[in-house]
Design brief:
Layout lengths: L1 H21 L8 H22 L2
Helix pairs in contact: 1-2
């Protein structure tokens, strides 16, 4: 269940990042922090998934 919440949060943040790429004028002032946070979070998520893989 926790994995679904993490993936849901990553999808939501991914949509914010994508919107900033498609419509840069509409990006909020904290968009850079969101982009960097998203990259770090996905790196950690993928690393954890690789560790769990048999």
């Amino acid at each position: 269940m926790e994995n679904r919440r993490i993936l849901g949060l990553l999808i939501l943040v991914n949509l914010v990042v994508l919107l900033g790429q498609i419509w840069p004028e509409g990006a909020p002032p904290f968009a850079r922090v969101v982009n960097i946070g998203f990259l770090v979070a996905t790196l950690l998520c993928f690393s954890a998934a690789l560790k769990k893989a048999p």
